[in-house]
Each structure stands twice: as C-alpha cells, then as structure tokens.
Amino acid sequence: MAALDLFFSFLLLLIFFFIIPTRASCPHSSCPGGPTVRFPFRLRILQLRRCGYAGFDLSCNNETLQTTLSLTNSSGNNFIVQTIDYDLQTLIVNDPDNCLPKRFLDRSFDNPPDTTPFRIQSFQMYTFLKCSPQATSFPVTARNISCLSDENHTVFAMPSREYDNWLQSKAPSPSPSPSSSGPSCAVISGVRVPARATHEWGVFGDAIEGVALTWSTPDCSLCEAIGRDCGLNRDASQIVCSDPKAKTKGLPRSAKYGIIIGVGIPGFLCILGLASYVCGRISAYGRRNRPNMDLSTSASQQPAIVVVGLDGPTIESYPKTLLGESRRLPKPNDTTCSICLGEYQPNEELRTIPECNHYFHATCVDEWLKMNATCPVCRKSPEGSALITPSSSMSSSSTSLPSP
Questions:
Q1: Where does the secretion signal sit in this chain (predicted)?
Q2: What CATH topology corresponds to 303-388?
C-alpha cells in the first residue's frame, strides 16, 4: 500500500506541474452586445476574480445582453459600456434609457475620491430649468432636454455663466419658482456636466453620445503600447506585462502531452499490477483466516477415498537383508535404491516389500511406507494396507495391518 500511495503522490505532482499552468490563464471575454473585456476589467461569473483589478467589475445585462458598469456614487441603474480603449485607458458609458441629463441631475458622475477608480477630465457648470410650454425666449446655447420634458413642461439646460448673463439682461427674468400665471421657468438645479457631454450638446442637441471615464491605476498604457497584456501574477501581488502569445510558462504543450502519455500509460499499468497484487494478498489472508468447515458435512457432500500409510509393526514385519562385503543381491542388476538414488554399500540394511519383492534402503522405505501404502516402484499396495474414507473413524492416524 505504501508503494501505491507513493505512485499517486507522484501522479498528482505530475499533473500539477505539467497540466496546470504556472500562471493562471485569463482569456478575453465579452457580452454579446458589448466590447472585449480584459484586464483590468473582468466580467462577473464569466471570469475569475484574479483576472480583474479591484473596482473594475463589469456585468452582462440579462435582458439587453449589453455590458454594464455600476458606479458606487450613482443612484440610478447601471451604465451601458459602449467602448473601452485600453491604450488611452478610457471607456465610454451611457444611460440605458438614453437620458444622460437625468444622470447629471442625480450627480452620478461626481468624483468621490474613495468610491470609484474612474475620473472625468473636466466639467462645466450647467443650470437646468423647468419651464411652461409658453416660455420660448432662451439663449442659443440653451438645449431642450426632451427625455425630461412632457406635455405640461419643458426642461432646458444652459451653461450657468450664460444663464446668469441672460438673467441679468432680460426683463422680466425667470422667477426662481414656477409662476402662477404667464410664461415662467424655475431653476431645477445647477450641476456639473462632463466637458465631453457639453460639447456633444452643442453638436447633437440632447442626443449625447456618452461620457468618457478614464483611469490611472493600474497603469498598463506602456504594456499596451508594445503589444503585450497586463495582468496580475499568481499570488495577485503585482502587475506583470506578459506576451499574449505565451500564456503559460514551462514546456511547450506538445512536450507536456508527450510526457503525460509516456508516464501515464506505464503508471496505469503499474496501478493495475499493484491492484492485482493487493487483491491477491487480501484473498490469501481471507482464506487463511476462514474457519474450517465441519468434516462430517464436507465428507457427506463430496465422498473421497484417502490412502493411509502403514503402521510401524506392519513395516517392521517386512523382511530385512544385511549386505555383506560382496554386496550380493537377489537381483544383481538392481544396485541403486529407487528412493534416494544411492548405490547399495556393504553392511547396509535393505528391506523387501513382500508383494512385489522390490527392495530399498530400510531407512528410506520405512519413511516412505509411513506416508504411502504402495511400493515406490510398481505402486502396488501391499497386503494389509488400509483405505480410509470420510465415513471411517478419524480417531487413529494409521490402520494396523496384519503381518504377511
């Protein structure tokens, strides 16, 4: 069993070093309706946590299948991620309802320093007005916000500086609260609007294309500029710049497969051999410790005949011959004991089996007859040998035979 444990330990080490890459792979991913997502971003569920940087988690919208971003200081829904520029470290986001002005009013793009890794380069103050349908005289820079307007009122937005100048130059000026009669406007709020959005207002009206968010940490701009990929090392302690064509370190894939096959097949055969050996030992141990079956029951189920050797008095009754110096034998050609294969020597005692007149060394044939009731040469049973069956008495180990 120790050898089996050692082999399995070696196999686990082999899998760890050759199958599991030394640097965990973080393949690029994306939502069906969104841009490619890679470090420092990661898609929840689809990518491992170590594949992204803290605060750069994205998600896939289950209904629209678009890529979404949640800003911790936003009180509304997640933003739709339209594009990600990894070289410039910029992403463009928009409101899922295509009403970014509403997100400006709830201050979703303010920059609390500790709640989001993203920043907006510059802002411009805008004043939002809620006016009655009769109010029509506004500066050319005022923009009608259709997604916030309805049949009862119209929402306008203009740069706060121009609003102040217009307020001072026009009479009567818009009241700070809705008037009970006549055309009137009320100030909703003065908010900071990202500079990109203010430029698009001047070009596209209120159809703002998106807001640009930038990040500075982690800084992967140099790595991206030379065509490499940013990522965290195995213990996520530092950012490394790796070659995208060499995702893992170590041996080439073909070499790894060759080693795995070369070691795996002999290893599998070793496992089979060890398993067979262990099973054999267990079976042998079980047979040794299995209780003996009742002899009478086993004999009744399968009768058998057992040949029992001769007893001492019977063996002693067989004639002995003491060889002289001439070594004359009844059969001159038989000069060798068929049991020990040794030649007969002077002064040795020989014993003859009466039934067949074969003779042997007395010591050799005595031992033989104690265990076998047949002649070692011709296999004849001497007169008086006993055949014991399972039904015979087992109290005596031998049967007394009458002297010939």
A1: 1-24
A2: Herpes Virus-1 (3.30.40)
